[in-house]
Amino acid sequence: MNTADLTSTGIILLVVVTIAYGGTFLLKIARADAAVNDFQSRMFRAGHAHAGVLVILGLVVRLCLQHPAVPAWSSTLASFVLYAAILMSAGFFLSAVGRDPQGPNRWIILLWVGAVSLTVGLVGAGAGLIVAGMTA
Q1: Are 61 and 121 in contact (CB under 8 A)?
Q2: From CA 91, how far away is CA 112, in angstroms rounded?
Q3: Where are the transmembrane segments (predicted)?
Q4: Which of 17, 31, 76, 92 has the most CB within a 10 Å radius?
Q5: Which residues contact 13 (CB under 8 A, 6 or more apart)?
Q6: pTM of the predicted protein model
């Protein structure tokens, strides 16, 4: 890994700590210590889960792309997996804010933008690995 990759990976690992800390809010919900409705509870759980899983997926993809034969464009596109972690979890959380919402608000668009970002990142990473495998 180059210096920029090492630094950004360190930052990402610190972000994982904040995701884990966010789990304490879910514990408050589970203990009924937080005033949320059923819809909000489901959305907050989904946002937390997507954040954790997609950040770890982004790190794994980053490691897979460290081979010298992987084209640079693939690594650039693969960073969209990490953007998806932010966008999708934000879509879940922000679309459920408010006093007793019964359904998602307009922030749900972030979930779909994140899904596109995830697709772009995974296709870019997969294509780059195939190209690297065929040329190595």
Answers
A1: yes
A2: 8
A3: 6-27, 48-65, 77-97, 109-134
A4: 92
A5: 59
A6: 0.88
